[in-house]
Amino acid sequence: MTTASVPARFWPAGKPRSLTLPATGLMHNLHVSAERYPDKVALWHYGHEVTYRELRDQAEHLAGHLASQGVGHGDRVAVWMQNSPAWVISAFAAWHLGAVVVPLAPMLQAREFGFFLQDAGIRAGVVGAELYERAKQGGLAHAVVANVMRGADPACGVPIPDGLDVEARLQGDDVSLETALKAAPVPMANVTAADLCVMPYTSGTTGIPKGCMHTHRSVQANVFGAGVWVDSSVEDVFLAALPFFHVTGFINSLMGSVTSGARVVIMSRWDRDAASTLIREQGVTLWTNTPTMIIDLMTSPNFNAADLESLRSVTGGGASLPASVGQRLLDVTGIMFLEGYGLSETMAQSHSNPKGRQKLQCLGIPLFNVDSRIVDIESGQELPAGETGEIVIRGPQVMQGYWNRPDATTEAFMDIGGQQFFRTGDLGYVDDEGYFFFVDRLKRMVNVSGMKVWPAEVENLLHAHPAIQEACVISVPDERSGERARALIVLRPGMNATPAELETWAREQMAPYKVPRDWQFVDSLPRSPTGKVAWRPLQEAAQAAMQGN
Fold first, then answer.
1. What is the pLDDT at residue 511?
2. Rounded to whole angstroms, how far apart are CA atoms 124 and 75?
3. φ, ψ for residue 39 (rounded to 5)?
4. Residues 3, 17: contact at Cβ < 8 Å?
5. Residues linked to residue 163 through DSSP beta bridges, in sequence order
6. How far apart are CA 178 and CA 470, in angstroms?
7. Rounded (5°) CA angle 400-362-386
8. Are 395 and 346 in contact (CB under 8 A)?
């Protein structure tokens, strides 16, 4: 299913099927906005405002310091901190030099951070002050250290996150961000669209984390594509609640805004009540989030649908929003969730629902210049509508490959008609109208007496139960059927249910073989750094316990 083959009645009216992409690098995007709107606020962070002129100038000064440490074209620079103006300044400083940003999750421990340093060959990094000791333990040679809450105003109207207003005791030739910003600027590097730009790492849930090599062109494809898709303009206000180290937050909360000259309202940590306040007080118009955030926001005792009145588009991904949750959002607020789909390897979105023709719990249609298909896992042959297979993608936002892992790169692509398609490892199907639907990860399956059960499908159905706030379904051994499904359940505050009650209800919602045989109630579910439920560790721990390990 190519973009061009999506029926006209489903393609958004007035939007082109194909986009001409810029030949320039990402720093050029900031230069354009800074020239056009020098005194306009680019970033708002807990009362601290940064204009476009200030953002450009500070990035150029930081680039001067990094250059003095030997950072140049093609070198990798770690950006390791919470969402903040410092994060944005650091990324643009690297691009000014033609360097490659390696965005890392603040939740990493020193040993994990050290792995990325070695794997990516990182020369220098800009790190949050609260992470500095871990950075040095991990082996970072030169650090620019930022107090990410510098300039925040306690009277800004929302709570300032704890533990981030920190001053580090610096070692050796490490410097504070304030000191680095005093360096003299250096000329901007000659950057082409084909140069490497950013290298997000995959989560590593199926093995050793791998760096996804993205060029300025593959990033620009989704920066400009996202802008056209949601009709963003200079007057928009983006809420950046997703982390910038993750491709969805990076593209849809940060880069799209800076490129259009809009304003980014930055949250350093998720806080559902603060998000509602910021949307209302800052007049937020565009918000990209995860289903977890929507669920959390709407279950707050302080939730008021009127707080969301300024929003004209709410988009998201990372996991499929259960249809029942999407319907509840629509019923309460009048907002139709615009779900999309993408991966680190595709620099966020490759599919999205067209506004006005959304389908709940649906990945959407292929975006500009994207060719996406459903293929048989064994043969690689394209499957007809309605049949489940692997989602494969070809498009301008697809990565160049995995950093220093040629074998993994070869395995990640397949040839179809002489064209290379990225194998997502996700199972899905396409309906007869060209919309794609997610079924599950390729290796995440429960085999019940030869019958395949996809946990994500069961979880989505369980979310419709009035007492269930969240559900995670895992596979555990079963002497009779080989495997059985276990459901880990977080109940809504003040609600009660028993395993027997849930099983009786579930049997009315799904085929008997899909109904979990085990039910366990938990206070919360563990999450990955990007906010997804970390199902694999739960499954591995449960299987080990049952096997007596």
1. 79
2. 9
3. -100, 5
4. yes
5. none
6. 43
7. 90
8. yes
**CATH 3.60.21.10 is held by the domain 52-191:** no
Cβ-based burial of 308 (10 A; exposed 0-12, middle 13-18, buried ≥19): buried
User: Which pair of tokens denotes residue 168?
Assistant: 């580090």
* CA–CA dist 436, 169 (Å, integer): 51
In angstroms, the CA 87 to CA 73 distance is: 20
Average pLDDT over the chain reads 93
Domain boundaries defined on the chain? 52-191, 444-546
Contacting residues for 306 by C-beta, under 8 A, at least 6 apart: 280
How does pLDDT run across 252-309, given as a tens digit for each residue? 999 999 999 999 999 999 999 999 999 999 999 999 998 888 989 999 999 999 999 9
Q: Residue 142 has what DSSP assignment?
A: S
**What are the DSSP E strand ranges found in 81-211?**
100-104, 122-128, 143-146, 175-176, 196-198
Q: In 3D, which of 36, 40, 121, 132 has the Cα closest to residue 81?
A: 132
**Which tokens is 523 given?**
């206070």
Give the C-alpha separation, 94 to 6, whole Å.
39
- Give the percent of the chain with pLDDT over 90: 78
AA letter at 271: D
Query: Is residue 143 within 8 Å of residue 124, measured between CB atoms?
Result: yes
Mean pLDDT confidence for 125-149 = 97
CATH superfamily of 444-546: ANL, C-terminal domain (3.30.300.30)
**Tens-place pLDDT, residues 373-422:** 999 988 999 999 999 999 999 999 999 999 999 999 999 999 999 999 99
CA distance 210 to 337: 31
Percent of the chain with pLDDT over 70: 98
Residue in the block written with tokens 């027997």: 500
3-state secondary structure of 357: coil
Dihedral Cα 402, 408, 412, 414, nearest 10 deg: 120
Rounded to whole angstroms, what are the CA distances from 172 to 140, 184, 519?
A: 12, 21, 54
Helices and strands, number each (H, E), in the chain:
16, 27
How far apart (Å, rounded) are the C-alpha atoms in residues 138 and 122?
12
pLDDT at 204: 47
CA pair distance 255, 353, nearest whole angstrom = 21
Rounded distance, CA 54 to CA 211, Å?
31
